[in-house]
Amino acid sequence: MSARASGAMLEQALKDILVEWQQCRASWNDVKAREFEHDFLEPLPAIVNQARPVIEDIDILLRKLKADCE
Q1: Sign of the CA dihedral 45, 46, 51, 57?
Q2: Scanning 10, 18, 33, 41, which has its CA 20 to 30 A from the CA of 48?
């Protein structure tokens, strides 16, 4: 699997987890749910956005390495 495909999978996983969380929140709505959301879920989009250019850089580097080895 390419680094670029891994990045796309990471973005899809974020979307999936946020959808699942919305379904979960329908039945879990207390202080601990809000803490979990604040501590773990709210930071995820920013983390994924920070990872995206790094993954693209890794993809470029891996392609260059592959081309150099051929």
Answers
A1: positive
A2: 33
Considering only CA atoms, which of 54, 52, 24, 26 is closest in space to residue 40?
A: 24
Distance, CA of 55 to CA of 39 (rounded, Å): 24
In the DSSP assignment, the letter for residue 26 is T
| 3 within 8 A of 57, measured Cβ to Cβ | no
* pTM for the full predicted model: 0.79
Residue 10 near residue 48, CB atoms below 8 Å: yes
What is the biggest distance separating any 2 CA atoms in the chain, rounded to whole angstroms? 57
Q: Chain-centre distance of CA 19, in angstroms?
A: 14
What's the CA gap between 46 and 63, in Å, rounded?
A: 27
pLDDT level of residue 31 (50, 70, 90 thresholds)? very high
